[in-house]
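Progress against Task 2.4 (sequence-to-structure conversion) is shown through the following example record, which the project officer requested during the mid-term review.
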Amino acid sequence: MRIVARGLRAGIFVIVPALWIVLIVGRGPAESTAPPPAGMVELKDVKYTGLVEAVKEQRGKVVMVDVWATFCPPCMKNYPHLLKLQQELGSQGLVCMSLSVDLPKSKPAALKFLQDNKSTIRNFWMDESPQLWAERWGTNGPPVIFVFDRTGRRAGKFTSINVEEIDKLVKDLLSAKP
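Structure tokens generated for the chain above:
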């Protein structure tokens, strides 16, 4: 009986520290904001601070964040242009991201829209209340397009989709000396 008790105590001394290591260290590296593998479309949940970090990670590149929703026809109409811009200007330093602000019940429809468009960029879904992001961005809802220069400074905010104006700003920022 004593041998069994010692074995149990020894096992506890091994298991408990191992559990603490898992809890403290976590399950692995932090999630990446890298684009999904080719052919796979993702819609990752993100808090406001996570989106800010995703933009910061791209310092040195021009970043365009398209805030959209499935209830916004102009947003959905413009989405293919966003993908085309990424394809044409990505090699020059453009990184396009999309942010769905759909309500939770519409998240599956948002993912289906992205899949139907064969999205090749980072796609996020805002996991925060509309009041929070609307207040922080000074807007009532989509469409909103933010453009950040290579230093991470916001260079433009568009609350209506004017493709020519947005494209001009992006190309000007790409051609500017870093």
